[in-house]
Specification:
354 residues, alpha+beta, five-stranded mixed beta sheet, four-stranded antiparallel beta sheet, 13 helices, 18 strands, elongated, disordered C terminus
């Protein structure tokens, strides 16, 4: 990617602008940047004056011949004929941009979020440390863009924030660096440095600079790669409260807390039920244990998402049941323990299968 794309995006905004404007602003870089734009419905009601980039011309229908762009205020100029393809609207393609940024900045891209002007587009990780969300902000091109960014940043924590350029690093934005443990990467400046031959890896630098908050952090057992989905993940429930994860040649293990016959591990019971019945149902809302079981299932879902940080959710809801998107089964050693009903494995296997 080129820095000029980010400068032009800042000028036009992400809400949608005429193809004429993108081509005019990008100049010789148009062909190289075209893949980062996608069409949206409708046509532009104005375009940039090719002779004066600081003003816009009104676009109107010109019957069978297409469209015209004209000046409504002095200095007047001859109308400019335009084809439909020139007034058709284009906006940034989040998916294409995320993929390109992932390759350039060394993070794993993915469709974590699909709405808004501030979205999680990937995850970054160094070694065996916990992952950090990678967030991209693409301003809409409106007067209130700075305020919108501040509101969006207030909802993010311990994340790497990609901004089009350093112009968004205002004192108000910088304040979130400490209060919400955020790291900021101005993308345009990164690509300008790369064009000068400097080997900058801002996301890795951001990982170094961001200090994790005190407390236990869950470390992923698998390192997701571009294109991974939940339906590619396999989980085997093994003896000793172990969950064995695999996907695309990677393998990992997580051990659930030890349990006793008096205090069984409900997460283990839920996973065993999923392996046998391929679904999980919380108790009825009027049941005495409904709330505790519901919370335990929610904690399990969050645990799985932390252990395998992928876009989307590991379960889909269908007629009151939670259906695993991932593949799940009982490991042979757990089956042997259940059949033999011996040792610690036997005690853990006594969790009721709902």
């Amino acid at each position: 990617m080129r820095a000029c794309f980010w400068r032009v995006l800042e000028a036009l905004g992400s809400a949608g602008s005429a193809t004429h404007d993108w081509r005019l602003r990008l100049g010789g870089e148009w062909e190289g940047c075209r893949s980062f734009l996608r069409p949206v419905a409708g046509v532009a009601d104005c375009v940039i004056d090719p002779d004066n980039h600081n003003r816009h011309l009104t676009v109107d229908d010109d019957g069978d011949s297409g469209f015209i762009a004209f000046a409504e205020e002095p200095p007047l100029r001859p109308p400019i004929p335009l084809l439909f393809g020139e007034v058709a609207l284009l906006c940034p393609d989040w998916s294409a941009i995320a993929d390109a940024l992932g390759k350039s900045l060394n993070f794993v891209p993915g469709p974590w979020e699909k709405d808004g002007v501030t979205r999680q587009i990937g995850i970054a990780q160094r070694g065996r440390n916990p992952t950090r969300p990678v967030i991209l902000h693409l301003p809409g091109g409106h007067i209130g863009d700075h305020g919108r960014l501040l509101r969006d940043l207030g909802k993010r924590n311990e994340s790497i924030i990609l901004l089009p350029s350093s112009r968004w690093l205002t004192p108000e934005v910088q304040a979130f660096r400490k209060s919400h443990n955020l790291s900021f990467v101005p993308v345009a400046e990164h690509f300008e440095a790369a064009a000068q031959g400097r080997q900058d890896f801002p996301v890795e630098a951001a990982l170094e600079l961001a200090t994790a908050k005190p407390g236990k952090r869950i470390v992923p057992v698998l390192h997701p790669q571009p294109g991974w989905r939940w339906d590619m993940v396999r989980i085997e429930v093994a003896s000793g409260g172990r969950l064995l994860f695999s996907c695309d040649g990677q393998h990992g293990e997580h051990r659930l807390p030890k349990t006793t016959a008096k205090k069984p591990n409900q997460a283990l019971g839920i996973m065993m039920t999923l392996a046998v019945k391929r679904e999980w149902r919380n108790p009825p809302s009027d049941a005495a244990d409904h709330e505790s079981v519901r919370k335990n299932f929610h904690r399990l879902e969050e645990l799985l998402r932390a252990l395998v940080p992928l876009p989307g959710k590991p379960f889909q809801r269908l007629r009151g049941a939670f259906i695993p998107v991932f593949q799940v089964s009982l490991h042979q050693d757990l089956l042997d323990g259940i059949n033999g009903n011996s040792g610690n494995t036997g005690r853990q296997s006594k969790v009721e299968l709902r």
